[in-house]
Specification:
- By secondary structure, the protein is an alpha+beta fold.
- The protein has helices at residues 19-41, 46-67, 140-162, and strands at 10-11, 70-73, 77-81, 86-90, 94-102, 105-112, 117-124, 136-138.
- The chain has a 4-stranded antiparallel β-sheet with strand order 1-2-3-4.
- Helix 1 (19-41) packs antiparallel against helix 2.
Length: 163
């Protein structure tokens, strides 16, 4: 069972760095927010407890979003998580997958038919990105294999759409 992945998708990128630490913090934030909500329900300190509960729950949501960072593929769609939001892109709308120089390395971008581009967190591993937790480092050959897989999925989606 896959948790912290968009429903109906499978992960193409490796899991984010520091995943275990992020999971621990997620559960800590979630448990403490539950305890604070329980304290609010019993009437202890009212609004002050509720505010802390909401803040702890928000922290748990942020940690969950960090765990969804990566490139996921579902039935005809790509889901790109950058740690703060999820972007869904129909594979049939994709025109190309390109590597662009950025952050001292190369980052995978998704080019769309309407001219927009979607940046992914997948990056060629190098010293310049070693400390960044918002990027997922991959070997250049691994990233090129993933691009080949994405191209195959894109062509299959176009074939299905034409049929």
């Amino acid at each position: 069972m896959q948790i912290f992945a968009p429903p109906g998708t499978r992960r193409l990128t490796p899991r984010p760095r520091d995943r275990r630490r992020t999971l621990v913090w997620f559960w800590i934030f979630l448990i403490f927010s539950g305890l604070l909500f329980a304290g609010y329900a019993t009437g202890d300190d009212g609004l002050k407890v509720l505010v802390f509960a909401v803040l702890w729950l928000a922290a748990a949501v942020v940690k969950a979003m960090e765990l969804m960072c990566g490139v996921h593929v579902g039935d005809g769609t790509l889901v790109v998580g950058d740690g703060m939001r999820l972007r869904r892109v129909a594979l049939a709308e994709v025109t190309a997958f390109t590597l662009r120089a950025a952050a001292g390395s190369e980052i995978l971008w998704i080019e769309l038919a309407d001219g927009r581009r979607v940046e992914t967190p997948a990056v060629v591993a190098c010293d310049a990105v070693a400390g960044r937790t918002d990027l997922i480092s991959m070997s250049r050959s691994g990233l090129l294999r993933m691009i080949d897989d994405l191209e195959h999925l894109r062509r299959a989606a176009l074939t299905r759409q034409a049929a």
